[in-house]
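Recall the central idea of this unit: under ordinary conditions, the amino acid sequence of a chain determines the structure it adopts. In this exercise we apply that idea directly, starting from the sequence alone.
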Amino acid sequence: MLYGELSHLGAIPAIELKMFALDKRYQRKGVAPTLLKAILEVIEYYSSEHVGAKIILLYSVPVKAVMMLYENNGFRYAKGEYATYVSPFNEGCVPMYKLL
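Accordingly, the structure predicted from this sequence is:
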């Protein structure tokens, strides 16, 4: 099963948000929520108009404030196949997804 609520679809077209990070000078200044919302708007537009993806995937660092940022923007914790995908770039990270 992939995501429970989407498991009936089989393979799911997705967009992966990678390397979303802020320079330390801009952290904890309210930049991340604004920037993430702008990025999600662009992804949602291009997905609906050109790509046809059904979800956005990401691997969050296991920091409560960062994971809450994603949760507050509609992301949920992933289970199944993507929760077990391991690479040197997402080791120790928390897989999350957002339905489009």
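The first strand starts at residue 14 and ends at 16.
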